[in-house]
Write a structure and sequence with these properties.
The chain is α+β, with helices and mostly antiparallel strands. It has helices at 6-23, 26-35, 40-46, 69-80, 84-103, 106-119, 235-269, 283-312, 319-343, 355-362, 372-389, 393-402, 410-429, 436-462, 465-489, 503-515; strands spanning 123-126, 142-147, 153-166, 173-180, 183-190, 196-201, 212-223, 273-274, 277-278. The chain folds into 4 domains: 6-121, Butyryl-Coa Dehydrogenase, subunit A, domain 1 (Orthogonal Bundle); 125-236, Butyryl-CoA Dehydrogenase, subunit A, domain 2 (Beta Barrel), CATH 2.40.110; 248-308 and 319-354, Up-down Bundle (Butyryl-CoA Dehydrogenase, subunit A, domain 3); 372-515. The protein has a 4-stranded antiparallel beta sheet with strand order 2-3-7-6, covered by helices on one side.
């Protein structure tokens, strides 16, 4: 298993906390947020010898520490509890380095990775474009080969515009996806290369401590040996290979932001009195604003750690699991942040109490590194096909795994998993899954069931009474929501409700009416 020594990991976490306590106190971060300032000197210091926060993401043989997926998740979660803007700057460094780590030839790795490790280079991942967001296949930036007199490719000329690039105007190094004659390909481009210009700085709703900007390429000439890999056309496969890791990082951000927000709400509930009693003694407060978020965040943690175990044990192609982790954890983090604003009432809406900043910062997590909707499309399609091909055994096997953990809700989750299998088969056979809304509802059910399976296993094995109670609550929740979700969009299943017939048609009518000229 690829993973740092636990003692080393805790030392890195402690170093991060100590550094940010000294260099980015809350008052300073709130000021940077108010003035829309990315503290580039702090980002560079985090990559310097005192902290070296990028080193766990880099292979040990090239000057890094060779951390695994679990280490990446832990650092992401801890960093998000401090500040999501600064955390995003570090995500961008890791993400920008990934094409080099997975796609470069050995000589290329030997050239670039030691520099990133030793010099603490800020890296940017230049993929997104004005007309190509989550769909990287639609990139329009062109890479035109430049040949010598003998017809050998010596350089490439890059032309195009990249949009919403984290670290876009402060990066030392860019990994750029461009369309070469052989297909989409990644290129390494250094800061200061003629024709590379940071463009418009984006004024954002949240994560204002991160730098987000356009990057413009006008006849940017790069040597042919800065094409990542051995040939053109490997860019999409290189991008796909790292999605499991990068989306796990963002899932960790969602979990960390949610934990920070929930802890703020819990602390407030122990101090604030209404009508003679503390808020933490009022069921209307705890059962609405605290308990559900405690459950969802515990489930998110269990599933993220499950995916980290899969990745660290060598199964690198975990795009779907990474997508599920990101969907669930970022949605959970957003709900927890929103509920924290509600929990603090008028104070929650005021800047100085921080939860409104957490809420603004967390909102991007449902958008970057694949929007929730793009990922729902991927999860729904792939998991439905897998379930149908298995003739019920895919989710049946999950049901068998968790059923023995009765005191953690295993029986309820097992029944729901088996139901999900039959429902997916039904919408596939009836061809209703071709409707995107139906597919999204199926994907949400898939996410709920698979996270519940991970939660039951974690709670059952641990024996922790709080975790088992949280698992039982989530098991009961999905036992209601999964059948109800299919009932809303599907006819012909045993649970179908007559009162829901025609609901999808009415939604189609409403959509058409409200969007008509």
């Amino acid at each position: 298993m690829t993973r740092l020594d636990p003692g080393d990991l805790e030392l890195i976490v402690d170093t991060l906390k100590d550094f940010t306590d000294r260099n980015t106190p809350l008052e300073q971060r709130m000021h940077w947020d108010e003035t829309d300032t990315c503290p580039a000197d702090v980002v560079r210091a985090m990559l310097g010898p005192e902290v070296g926060l990028h080193l766990p993401f880099l292979p040990a043989e090239y000057g890094g520490m060779g951390g695994g997926a679990y280490d990446i998740y832990r650092l992401s979660c801890e960093f998000a509890q401090i500040d999501l803007g600064l955390a995003t700057s570090m995500l961008a460094v890791a993400l920008g380095t990934d094409p080099i780590r997975v796609g470069c030839t050995e000589p290329q790795k030997a050239k670039w990775l030691p520099r990133i490790a030793g010099e603490g280079l800020i890296v940017a991942y230049a993929v997104t474009e004005p007309e190509a967001g989550s769909n990287v296949q639609n990139v329009q930036t062109q890479a035109r080969p430049v040949t010598d007199a003998a017809g050998n490719v010596t350089h490439y000329s890059l032309n195009g515009v990249k949009q919403f690039i984290s670290n876009g105007s402060i990066a030392d190094l860019y990994t750029v996806l461009a369309k070469a004659p052989g297909g989409p390909s990644f290129f390494i481009v250094e800061r200061g290369t003629p024709g590379l210009t940071p463009g418009k700085h984006e004024v954002k709703h949240g994560i204002r401590l991160s730098d987000t900007a356009q990057v413009i390429f006008e006849d940017v000439i790069v040597p042919a040996d800065q094409l990542i890999g051995s040939k053109e056309g490997e860019g999409l496969s290189q991008a796909n290979e790292v999605f499991g890791f990068t989306r796990l990082m963002v899932a960790g951000f969602g979990l960390g932001a949610g934990i920070r927000a929930l802890n703020k709400a819990i602390a407030y509930s122990k101090q604030r009195r209404q009508m003679g009693t503390l808020l933490c003694e009022k069921q209307g407060y705890t059962h609405k604003l605290l308990v559900p978020n405690s459950v969802r965040l515990a489930v998110a943690r269990a599933y993220i750690e499950h995916v980290a175990d899969l990745l660290d044990n060598g199964t690198t192609d975990r795009q779907i699991e990474g997508a599920i982790a990101k969907i669930f954890a970022t949605e959970a983090g957003n709900i927890a942040a929103d509920d924290a604003v509600q929990a603090l009432g008028g104070y929650g809406y005021c800047v100085e109490y921080e939860v409104e900043k957490i809420r603004r910062d967390a909102r991007i997590l449902r958008i970057y590194e694949g929007t929730t909707e793009i990922l729902q499309n991927i999860v729904g399609l792939y998991r439905m096909r897998e379930s149908v091909r298995s003739k019920g055994t895919y989710y049946g096997a999950m049901a068998d795994q968790v059923e023995p953990f009765a005191d953690a809700g295993g029986a309820a989750v097992a029944r729901t998993a088996r139901f999900l299998s039959s429902a997916l088969d039904h919408i596939f056979r009836e061809k209703v899954a071709r409707q995107q809304y139906v597919l999204f509802e199926a994907a949400t059910s898939i996410v709920e069931v698979e996270t519940a399976v991970a939660m039951v296993r974690a709670a059952g094995i641990s024996g922790d009474e709080l975790l088992k109670a949280q698992s039982r609550v989530w098991a009961r929740e999905i036992a209601l929501t999964v059948p109800m979700r299919f009932a809303r969009v599907t006819d012909g299943l045993p649970f179908a409700l007559d009162s829901q017939e025609g609901r999808l048609a009415d939604m189609d009518l409403i959509a058409k009416q409200i969007t008509s000229p």
